[in-house]
Amino acid sequence: MTYSHQSQLLTKAAAALHFCGVVVVFFIVWLGNGEAAERVPDNVESLHCQIVASTVFPEIILAKDDPSVAHDVPVVLGGISDVALKKAIDDSGQFVIRLLTDRGPSRKIETADGKQRVFLNPSFVPTVLVFEISGCQLDKTHGRTKNLNVELQSKFSLQSPAGKVITGRSNGLEGDDSIANPSGEGLLAPDVNGIDPEGCVLLADGTFWLSEEYRPSLLCCEADGTVTKRFIPEGVNLPASDVQFAENLPAHYANRRANRGFESLALSPDESIIWTLMQSPFDDEAAERSGNVRLLGFDVKEERPTCEYIYRLGNPAAADFATGGVVPDDGKLCAMASIGPKTLLALEQSDDGDAKLYRCELGKATNVLGDDRYLDGVRDLELVGVEPVKKTLVADLASLLPSFASDITAGQWQPEVGEEVAGLKLEGLAVLDSKHVIIVNDNDFNVDSLFDENEMRRRSCMWVLSLPQPLKAKSF
Q: Are 86 and 439 in contact (CB under 8 A)?
């Protein structure tokens, strides 16, 4: 049986961690199906990570400015929406990653007709970049953060089967933003194949899948970036194109908030199921108050949804969590990875300055696929017989946010003790091995600093974090 890149990483047999002066040893056996059997002590007090290595990505030009286009700007590497491991880390500390950008730099400006979204460089298209990372000696850090070496191996854009480049422009359907040129004086033609990509998973044969926010949709891609099929919600009348599309996702996904579609993507260890998670609750006040977010399982071989679960934002240890207590301020789910057949690792953030990694166990959650009841605004799911995804805190990233902020701004932002650190946009997550994860940030192509001298420039960074406990997955 063929296994995904994620499952190939989880091969460590033992780990020793130091908690508050006490050495705790974990013995782990990673099984062929991606699960783990382990003994986890009850006296682990700290759930904080450590940064063991980091790097800043080079400012590679992805689109040059066009002198014939008024207010056009060059685009350098930024807007990173996800990271995937292409080659597992070896004994020399070398591994290969794949980065995915979003639709490109844009903003809203005031025009005579009201607010208008503009693309700052209409020639930019979503891009995939492959980097070789070296110098990541995880067992030799001795408490010091290692500076990693990063080298670009390749980059490519996406294309349709007919060879037409796929842009980041919206599809031109009702409810889509119209998009203008940089000056706002003329509208850009919509692209029926246009996407705002946010998630990426790699299969062992080199093919890959993307998730995107516009419809939202899932896309199947050949190794060279050719999009062969697009899966969209039922009832979405997307005009025909040379990219085959299937209208077989649940219709309610079209109810997503603007720019809050399929944000996270993960692949089961046996490559049979793709998991995609909405970034936020659907676009209604009751759903936002409940904190209920949809998680969809999609069968790769059969090319159809097979299950759907409710993920609830917020602290699962809170007394009123199950009954829909106070949810985080604008909670977001921005990245996800698979750590078992029905176990995921999710990165949850909020405008309150929270950033946490949760283990998500699906084995006992209620499959609500095909359930036509309105569940998104239900605060007490038990009353309607629905068990949400079981969440367990793996790591609280709060203590690292000041370091992230400093790295992203090249030291310009040095948060003080107790200062709320929000808005860092940590948007990519990959499992490096059973004790380490990779996180990357989205700097929004530095759009804010281009037009406001008081805004700090932001860099695109990557951090390797050591987890407080080795990852585990339970058998169901």
A: no
pLDDT averaged over consecutive 10-residue blocks of the chain (476 residues)? 42 33 35 39 63 97 95 96 97 97 95 91 98 89 83 98 97 92 94 97 97 96 98 94 96 88 96 96 90 97 98 92 80 94 96 92 98 95 95 95 96 89 94 96 96 95 96 57
Q: For residue 155, is it within any domain?
A: yes
- Domain-embedded: residue 471: no
pLDDT at 142: 58
Distance of alpha carbon 102 from alpha carbon 187, whole angstroms: 20
Query: What is residue 59's predicted lDDT score, i.e. its pLDDT?
Result: 96
Residues in Cβ contact with 287 at an 8 Å cutoff, skipping those fewer than 6 apart: 281, 376, 377
> Are the beta carbons of 375 and 418 closer than 8 angstroms?
no
CA atoms of 49 and 465, how far apart (whole Å): 6
CA–CA distance, 425 with 335 (Å, rounded to integer): 10
Q: Identify the domain containing residue 56 by its residue range.
A: 5-466
Give the length of the chain: 476
Partners of 181 in the β-ladder? none
Tell me whether residue 369 is in a domain.
yes
Separation of alpha carbons 37 and 473, rounded Å = 7
Beta bridge partners of 455: none
Half-sphere exposure of 38 (CA within 13 A, CB side): 26
φ/ψ of residue 401, rounded to 5: -60, -40
- State the sign of the Cα–Cα–Cα–Cα dihedral 163, 164, 168, 170: negative
Tokens linked to 92: 């020399």
Q: Against a cut of 0.85, is the pTM above it?
A: yes
Q: Tokens at residue 165, please?
A: 């480049």
**CA nearest to 316, candidates 335, 331, 301:** 331
Report d(CA 320, CA 309) in Å as an integer.
20
Q: How many CB atoms lie within 10 A of CB 367?
A: 14
d(CA 382, CA 323): 8
Phi and psi angles of residue 68, each rounded to the nearest 5 degrees, phi first: -80, -10
User: What backbone phi and psi angles, to 5 degrees, belong to 388?
Assistant: -75, 175
Surface-to-core class of residue 2, CB atoms within 10 Å of its CB (0-12 exposed, 13-18 middle, 19+ buried) = exposed
Which two three-digit tokens encode residue 375?
């569940």
Please report which helix (H) or strand (E) contains residue 5, including its range: helix 5-9
Q: How many domains does the chain have?
A: 1
For residue 35, the model assigns a pLDDT of 41
Is 473 inside a domain boundary? no
Provide the 10 A C-beta neighbour count for residue 172. 15
